[in-house]
Each structure stands twice: as structure tokens, then as C-alpha cells.
Amino acid sequence: MTRHPSKSMAALWMTGWLGLMVIIAVAGREAARELHLFQVMELRSTLGFLMLYPLIRAAGGFAAMGTTRPWSHIGRNVVHYAAQYCWFAALLMIPIGQVVAIEFTMPIWIAILAAIFLGERLNAGKITAVVLGLIGVIVIVRPATGSVEPGQLVALAAAFGFAISITLVKSLTRIDSTLTIMFWMLIIQSALGFVPAIYVWQWPSTIGWSWIVVIAFCGTFSHYCMARALTYADATIVIPMDFLRVPLTATAGWLLYGERLDLYTVLGAALILCGNLLNLRSAPPAPVSKPAE
Length: 293
Prior knowledge:
By secondary structure, this protein is mostly helical. The protein has twelve helices and two strands, in the order E-H-H-H-H-H-H-H-H-H-H-H-H-E.
């Protein structure tokens, strides 16, 4: 069936994404202080699957989770797994507000990728948005100073990986339901991380388990919110709504860890925001296709 575009519905689902992603940034840092990232990610996927199972059962069980594009799911999740690892790693290396600020180059990469692979038009406004976003990254990272932090590059790699993943999700929503996309994400990423997680395995403490459960819940249902939002609007409209996560996460970092964003990060984030707003304004409304669920 065809679902008519709705910015208000997309924004509603993105509100869920925002809250869950701010929580997961804090929980991810805390869990990774005790456990290896491979283990954190494996437990996130396996527990997330258990949390999602009631929805799978209600939708018709495993038989209803079939797909005609298995290789697209595999490719998307390999990229997403790598990007997720980089994102968690960056949380341990630089302030969480800076991680999220750099992550917001994602809409810039999405604008390019969506134009190449999804046929979305890359007009003058979007090109200007790309340029502003790239300048913003340069301001934050400041390569001319010769003191680029590895964590900044890791966060940038995560942003590019997430952009590829979101672009593929947008393509998959044309054929598969949100729940099917989530099902294959958890199955494939559990398989990808099983051997590395076993190799570094150690039993979490009670506090560690608490953080893992929070990560599993937020990680699973944040993606459900994102996938639902993408059924109501183009990727170039949905993703810029996420920019509120920068001040929200920066506030959490300040309150919990005493982290403050420097002037360069604020200026760079502002340039990226301007680019994202141009991106939003230059995106024409278009009908969004979605399969029946």
C-alpha cells in the first residue's frame, strides 16, 4: 500500500528515537567501561531479539519475516555493525556531545547516497547543505592544527557508516515491513558478533547487566522508531529532525560527566545544523511507498 507523507507522524516517531538515543549514549559509555564492545553489542542484539519477539509473534511469527532481499539486509547490517562499533568506541574517546555533533554529518552523506542510489534529487539547496556540513566537520576536527584526535575520526567513520545503513533502510522499506527489517538486523548482527563476543567474554556485574538491558531496549526500539519515521517521509527530511540530539546529549554529558563543548565544536555543529536545515527546506514532498504490515 501507499502511505501518504506526513511530517507530523515522522516527527512523532523521531521523538521516540531522540529520547532512546540520548539514553543509549550514556548507557553505552557506562557498559563499555566494564565490558568489551563486542560483548556489549552481542548482548544488545540477543536481548533485543527477545524484547522484539512478542511483536514478531503478533505479526505472524517467523514465517511472516521472510524477505526477497536477503543480500540487501546482510550488506546493510554488516555496515551498520561496523558503524555501531565505531560509535561506541568514540564514546570512550571524546566527549559524548562531540560524538553526536560529528555524527550529524550523517544527513550530508545521506543526501549524496540517496541521490545516487534512491534517485532523490540533489538540487542547489542540498549541494549547499553538503558544503556547509563539510565545513562544519573541518571546524570541529581542525586538521590544520595537526592535533586531530583519533576519536573524532572514529566518530566520522561511524557517521558515514550510519548514512549508508539508513539509505539502505529507506530502500528496504519499499518492500519489507519495519518489523522484518528489525528482525533481520538482530539476527544478522547477533551472528556477526557471536565469535568475537565469546572470545572476549566475561560475566557482567549486576550494574553491568542493568546497563546492557537499557542498551538492548533503547537500541532495538530506537531503530523501530527510525524505521517507522522513514515510512512517512524521505530520509533527507527525517534525519535532520534528529539534530535536537546534539544539545540534549551535550546537556547529559555536562550534567553527568562535567563535559563542556568547546567553541569550535559549537561553531562546527551550528554550520552542520544550517546545512541540515537547508537540506530539509530543499526536500520536495513526495509519496512514500510502504508494504502492508
